[in-house]
Amino acid sequence: MSGIIWGGLATCSGLSIRLAPASVSRYTSLSHPLMVLLAAVFLAFTAHAQSPPFQADSNRGARLFGELSCAKCHNVNGRGGNTAPDLGRLADRNFTPASIAATMWNHAPAMWSAMSARGVHAGDVDEQVAADLFAYFYSMRYFEKPGDAARGKRAFTDRGCAGCHGLTQEIHPGMPPVSRWENLNHPVALAQAMWNHSPGMLAATGSKRLAWPELSAQDLSDLLVYLRNLPSTRSQAAVFDVTAGENGVALYSSKGCAGCHQSATALANRIKGRTLTELAAEMWDHAPKIAAAGAAPVQFQPGEMRELLSYLWARQFFEDSGDAARGRRVFVSKHCADCHQNASAAAPKLTGGSQTFSGPSMVAALWRHGPAMLTSMRGSGVPWPRLSADDMSALIAYLNISNKEKR
Ligand code: HEC
Ligand code: HEC
Ligand code: HEC
Ligand code: HEC
């Protein structure tokens, strides 16, 4: 069982982020810290059953981005140089580790020319560094639809919240007004508070003969933006605590998910392509089903739902889903096989060995061996092969399968 932990805080060190109230008074400024909060999440994933665990940390990635000179040419959302593409944009294009590796691969020769023209020597990039950089790029883009306060205001009424919860005053005994809600710092935290209180809410729903108010991810984001920006809540500083100790795997079984969903892999396969906020909304939506099934209510400590959902989310995000058969065809048609399966070509064998490949490892290989490979290609008249994101993930799948028996 291997795991990669994406962790750390993108813009601050230590165990919590405190946002100045002024910086959260408008959603446009909130959206960035929110994304930072999500970046701070611990994301555990299994890339390959046999690969060693390593930690990918967006905070470290941010530092490396400067130290390795990337920032001399590139910026990320406006910070850094401007002679090369903004790497914050990468997260917009169906961001996956393989897609980043493919993009870098395609642009590498032009990037190397820019480096020699400007006399910049970028530092070494190994698999760990590449993973940290990916975590950083990822963290710099909030990957979900932004919320809208006017829609949130409507949802608060339409979804029935306003029937039980006042904004500043308790309108029904035992139903706390929004000004007393503790968790308005991000969608997963709100979902966690709602989940923890769902047995009480469910009971209140029953007595008022109301249907359980289902929420979409958009509803959740909208509600949050609306509620955060009320005069009565605006003074709440957003505090984000990183939990230590239990990880996603342990939470998955201790919170009873395994009882109904069996393996985390099975659940991860069902949630392919979903965002963290969508998962948070789904958690809320199925609280009554869990109660109906007679399962004992489980409570989440601060940070635990974030850790659990991040773990599930990241599993599907990073899982290699490339098509190995296609990868084999790419390997031949892009001429990789000409050199890498040809004993006389003086290129290392990539198949039938014991290496494990991933998005980060491909970037590291490109960084370390790419310039020599380019020279070798020029020598044999092979143009630099361009790879799509699908080509890259297919190649990774093919190389891993061909190496599997040796591990
Ligand atoms: C000397 C300037 C320079 C440095 C230093 C540099 N790059 Fe680049 N990079 C470029 C240029 C120029 C391009 C665009 C090449 C092209 O147009 O094909 C590029 C392209 C890229 C791309 C593809 C971007 C896209 O949106 O298409 C990635 C990813 C990338 N670089 C990552 C890095 C990382 C990570 C580092 C540091 C380890 C780094 N670069 C250091 C100049 C640089
Ligand atoms: C039928 C009444 C009812 C409805 C409808 C309802 N709630 Fe609640 N809610 C409650 C009760 C009762 C509690 C307190 C439960 C407890 O303490 O265990 C509660 C607690 C909460 C809490 C926890 C507050 C804290 O102490 O931090 C949040 C957050 C919350 N509700 C959000 C919502 C949202 C959002 C909606 C609309 C989608 C909603 N509720 C709809 C009755 C309701
Ligand atoms: C009592 C059984 C039960 C428990 C316990 C349970 N779930 Fe579920 N869960 C379900 C069912 C049934 C569905 C499918 C809901 C549907 O189809 O509408 C579901 C759906 C989901 C979904 C949406 C996936 C999809 O296919 O759309 C997620 C995410 C999820 N559960 C996460 C969790 C997590 C995390 C836990 C542990 C905290 C958990 N569940 C605990 C029964 C359970
Ligand atoms: C013209 C010959 C040639 C072609 C074509 C070629 N390579 Fe290479 N490749 C090399 C050489 C030579 C090296 C070793 C460079 C060095 O010594 O640093 C290398 C190194 C590598 C490495 C690093 C290996 C290691 O030891 O970690 C990887 C990964 C790689 N190539 C992948 C590919 C892929 C994928 C393709 C097809 C898209 C490809 N190569 C096409 C010649 C080639």
Q: SSE layout and pairings?
A:
Layout: E1 4-7, E2 16-18, H1 27-39, E3 43-45, E4 54-57, H2 58-67, H3 70-73, E5 75-76, E6 79-80, H4 97-118, H5 127-139, H6 149-158, H7 161-164, H8 187-196, H9 198-207, H10 217-228, E7 239-241, H11 248-254, H12 257-261, H13 264-270, H14 276-285, H15 287-292, H16 304-318, H17 324-333, H18 336-340, H19 359-379, H20 389-404
Helix pairs in contact: 1-5, 2-5, 4-19, 4-20, 5-19, 6-10, 8-14, 8-16, 10-14, 11-16, 13-16, 17-20
Bound molecules: heme C (4 copies).
Question: How do the strands of the widest beta sheet line up side by side?
Answer: 3-1-4
Which ions and ligands are bound to the chains? heme C
How many helices? The count is: 20
Report the β-strand fraction as a percent range: 5-15%
Structural class: mainly alpha
Mean pLDDT: 77
Backbone shape: elongated
**What integer value in Å does the Rg equal?**
24 Å
Residue share in helix: 40-55%
Quaternary structure type: single chain
Largest sheet report: 3 strands, mixed
Low-confidence stretches: 1-54, 237-246
* Count of strand segments: 7
Question: How far is the N terminus from the C terminus?
Answer: 14 Å
What sequence of helices (H) and strands (E) makes up the elements?
A: EEHEEHHEEHHHHHHHEHHHHHHHHHH
Describe the structure.
The protein has a domain at 324-404. It has 20 helices and 7 strands. The protein has helices at 27-39, 58-67, 70-73, 97-118, 127-139, 149-158, 161-164, 187-196, 198-207, 217-228, 248-254, 257-261, 264-270, 276-285, 287-292, 304-318, 324-333, 336-340, 359-379, 389-404, and strands spanning 4-7, 16-18, 43-45, 54-57, 75-76, 79-80, 239-241. The chain is 52% helix and 5% strand. The longest helix has 22 residues, at 97-118. By secondary structure, the protein is mainly α. The structure holds heme C (HEC) (4 copies). One heme C is lined by residues 68-70, 72-74, 84-85, 87, 90, 103-104, 107, 110-111, 114-115, 118, 120, 122, 125, 133.
